[in-house]
Amino acid sequence: MTEHLSDADIVLYVERRGDADSILAIAQHLDQCWDCRDRTAAIVDDGADDRPHVGGAHDNARTPLPDQRSRFRYLPWAILVAIAIVVIAIAIRVSG
What we know:
Elements: H1 7-15, H2 20-32, H3 34-44, H4 68-71, H5 75-95
Helix pairs in contact: 1-2
């Protein structure tokens, strides 16, 4: 298959109603065609759960980006601990 898949082909593939040769041909096409893969994904998942579609089993798949919030989640606590240490050091020096 060199042309894009029709909606009927995609539905056959998603519902596995075609014969084995058709299903395999469609699967091979989906391995190479991002446009048809996106159309198929839209049929399978309408996006109602708002999950990002990143990553995948293919070599050229996009890799997920690190979550910035998880990267710095301990930063406020580290700042508070540093401030507490400075305050305690100043209090010891002033009282001593």
